[in-house]
């Protein structure tokens, strides 16, 4: 089928070239000649041969039934609609009104073919009058059959933007300009209408309402004209707009445009606002809990006080007392018999009546989860969590604790020791394991082996690291861990000694003080080159760097010098310093060359060690047998392996006398020995007057050398 559109009276008109073609009519679907298929409906859809259902449908809209009978068209013997009075001089009237009176017709499309058994005449064209407005000429076309005895007339018309409440089509067949009356036959008639939404007085091609009927307003969310809801108002665009959520009714969109309030809100007439009621109130006449008019579910209304109340133990109730509960506040147990919500006195919340049904505890008690009890004190391997008010387990390394981490220990299990609130198997260097208290105690003699279980430069270690000279941690004031070797390296690269867990760095010095095994000299190694100190004499240098007590044991006439990283002290005979004596430097006197911006004020390992000189050898000269007329002479003439330091102390004692001797003589001998000891004499003379003949006397020489060696001869 071919078709073309032409203009007639500014309307789109469809012209069909072949009369036996037609469009199917399926309501709400298809592109109906320019109408919007979403809102277009098929009113008439008759195409020969006529069915009874077509006739029944057309009866609703045709003003008379003259042409609604099945008749045979003489030309082709097909069943068309016609009738005896269905003639060229009678108009055909079709009227359509939507079933809902508030439904407007936006546009329509009508199409029909009528035939007549007569000789063709192209000047005869049907007239269409729509709502009393005629359309003629180019809106319809007349055609003749092939033998000039068959004629038919085709009309198609699309009109939009009508916005009318009904349609009346009057069709004047062949313009009534035929001298002879002919019976007409209806071969096809189709009518589509596009409707606006109900209650819309005017709409566009997409059925968007442009104007609603009076009393109806455009709802944007549904694209319909409806009465405004109770919680809406009509805005300046004549549209329904929602009130503020607090308002039940309103005259504007804001919270202060309320006219009435939703349940649970109080209307303040002065401000036209809705104020929330107290949570206990369902309705109220004010914002306070004493303004209730009715209660939220589960509360009891006290009319005298206008309050909604329950006992604090009740969640819901039917009275104000603790025996009026219907359900319980969280954590309380409901006793259905007494209608009360209770717990054991120790429990704050519970799931039963006994002390073993606690869920949380009263003040001053702690929850023991294993037994569901509230206790005054937790088990030894637990701690009271004050925030949660619970007994919580200690870390499994702790015997007791004040927190749940491994660094919250207060005491330890056997074979582990408390250090910095950690339980360790090996105490750090500088601490000693106390097997009574199971603690790591600071050492007095922190250089002793008992106080240094790990390798010397470590702070802490485990058992497997001891043999490999490896560490877990370092004293970070002067050392840092080397992760590749697990060793503590000195931050001062000059100090490569591994004699102590600290090392010489900046203001800290580790001392290695040794008394010589061969000469009277004290060598003090500080591990890193020292700045020289200007002094008048070697003796004055000593007084510039040592405290008075140290100077006293070094001897006032001893001489000091700084040699690279050492301080050398040449000891005089007056020196009494010995192994295990402490030496103390004056703070802020010495400096390392690499750290000239700071003075040394902290000294570690300030104890004196003695290089072993070997076993001391003493030789005396005396006569084993002496004439009673002669004095006894005993003289020390040789001493070896004393590093040239001689005696710290000596003692002459009378050990034994065999033979007859008076008490006076014996006491005199003892006095001679006492004076020799006091004077540290290494030779002894006893006058013969104190020695009777024929006696055997034994004298013992006890000594302490300055190299810390003792002996008896």
Biggest sheet overview: 7 strands, antiparallel
Specify the structural class.
mainly beta
| Span between termini | 150 Å
> How much β-strand is present in the residues?
35-45%
How much helicity do the residues have? under 10%
| CATH topology type of one domain | Jelly Rolls
Q: What would you say the CATH architecture of one domain is?
A: Sandwich
Number of helices: 5
The protein's oligomeric status is single chain
Q: Mind explaining what this structure looks like?
A:
The chain is mainly beta. Among the domains are: 3-195, Jelly Rolls (Sandwich); 504-610; 617-712, Immunoglobulin-like (Sandwich), CATH 2.60.40. It contains five helices and 58 strands. The strands form 23 sheets. Strands 1, 2, 3, 7, 10, 11 and 13 form a seven-stranded antiparallel β-sheet that branches. A five-stranded mixed β-sheet has the order 49-50-48-47-52. A four-stranded antiparallel β-sheet has the order 6-12-8-9, with no helix packed on it. Strand 38 and strand 39 (409-412) form a beta hairpin. It starts with a strand and ends with a strand. The relative contact order is 0.05. Residues 1-24 have low confidence and may be disordered. InterPro entries: Furin_repeat, Growth_fac_rcpt_cys_sf.
């Amino acid at each position: 089928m071919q078709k073309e559109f032409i203009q007639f009276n500014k309307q789109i008109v469809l012209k069909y070239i072949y009369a036996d073609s037609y469009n199917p009519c399926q309501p709400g679907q298809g592109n109906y000649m320019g109408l919007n298929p979403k809102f277009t409906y098929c009113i008439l859809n008759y195409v020969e041969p006529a069915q009874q259902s077509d006739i029944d449908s057309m009866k609703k809209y045709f003003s008379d039934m003259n042409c609604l009978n099945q008749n045979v068209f003489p030309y082709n013997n097909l069943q068309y609609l016609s009738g005896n009075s269905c003639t060229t001089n009678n108009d055909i009237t079709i009227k359509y009104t939507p079933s809902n009176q508030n439904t407007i017709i936006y546009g329509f499309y009508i199409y029909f073919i009528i035939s007549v058994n007569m000789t063709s005449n192209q000047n005869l064209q049907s007239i269409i009058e729509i709502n009393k407005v005629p359309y003629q000429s180019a809106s319809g076309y007349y055609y003749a059959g092939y033998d000039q005895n068959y004629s038919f007339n085709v009309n198609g018309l699309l009109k939009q933007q009508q916005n009318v409440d009904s349609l009346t089509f009057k069709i004047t067949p062949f313009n009534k300009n035929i001298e002879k009356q002919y019976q007409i036959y209806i071969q096809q008639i189709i009518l589509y209408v596009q409707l606006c939404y109900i209650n819309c007085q005017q709409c566009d091609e997409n059925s968007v309402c442009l104007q609603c009927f009076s009393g109806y307003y455009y709802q944007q969310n549904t694209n319909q004209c409806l009465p405004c809801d109770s919680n809406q108002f009509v805005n300046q665009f004549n549209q329904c707009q929602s009130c503020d959520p607090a308002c039940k009714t309103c005259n504007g969109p804001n919270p202060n445009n309320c006219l009435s309030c939703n349940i649970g809100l109080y209307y303040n007439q002065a401000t036209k606002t809705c104020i929330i009621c107290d949570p206990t109130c369902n309705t109220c006449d004010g914002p306070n809990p004493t303004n209730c008019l009715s209660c939220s579910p589960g509360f009891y209304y006290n009319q005298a006080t206008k309050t909604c109340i329950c006992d604090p133990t009740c969640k819901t109730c039917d009275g104000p007392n603790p025996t009026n509960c219907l359900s319980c506040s969280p954590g309380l147990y409901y006793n259905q018999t007494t209608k009360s919500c209770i717990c054991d006195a120790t429990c704050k919340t519970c799931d039963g009546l006994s002390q073993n049904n606690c869920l949380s505890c009263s003040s001053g008690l702690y929850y023991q989860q294993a037994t569901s009890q509230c206790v005054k004190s937790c088990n030894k391997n637990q701690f009271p969590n004050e925030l949660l008010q619970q007994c919580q387990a200690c870390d499994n390394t702790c015997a007791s604790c004040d927190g749940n981490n491994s660094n919250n220990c207060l005491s330890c299990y056997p074979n582990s020791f408390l250090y910095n609130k950690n339980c360790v198997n090996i105490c750090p260097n500088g601490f000693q394991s106390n097997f009574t208290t199971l603690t790591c105690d600071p050492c007095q003699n922190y250089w002793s082996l008992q106080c240094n279980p790990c390798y010397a430069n470590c702070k802490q270690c485990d058992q497997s690291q001891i043999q490999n000279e490896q560490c877990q941690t370092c004293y970070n004031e002067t050392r840092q861990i080397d992760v590749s070797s697990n060793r503590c390296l000195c931050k001062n690269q000059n100090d490569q000694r591994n004699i102590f867990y600290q090392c010489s760095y900046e203001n800290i010095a580790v001392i290695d003080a040794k008394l010589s095994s061969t000469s009277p000299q004290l060598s003090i190694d500080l591990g890193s080159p020292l700045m020289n100190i200007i002094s008048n004499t070697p003796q004055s240098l000593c007084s510039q760097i040592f405290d008075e007590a140290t100077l006293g044991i070094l001897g006032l006439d001893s001489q000091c010098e700084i040699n690279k990283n050492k301080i050398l002290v040449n000891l005089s005979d007056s020196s009494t310093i010995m192994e295990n004596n402490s030496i103390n430097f004056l703070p802020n006197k010495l400096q390392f060359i690499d750290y000239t911006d700071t003075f040394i004020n902290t000294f570690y390992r300030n104890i004196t060690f003695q290089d072993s000189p070997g076993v001391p050898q003493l030789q005396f000269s005396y006569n084993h047998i002496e004439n009673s007329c002669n004095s006894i002479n005993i003289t020390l003439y040789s001493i070896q392996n004393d590093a040239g330091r001689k005696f710290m102390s000596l003692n002459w004692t009378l050990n034994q006398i065999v033979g007859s001797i008076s008490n006076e003589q014996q006491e005199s001998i003892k006095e001679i020995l006492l004076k020799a000891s006091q004077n540290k004499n290494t030779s002894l003379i006893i006058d013969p007057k104190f020695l009777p003949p024929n006696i055997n006397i034994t004298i013992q020489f006890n000594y302490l050398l300055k190299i810390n060696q003792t002996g008896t001869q």
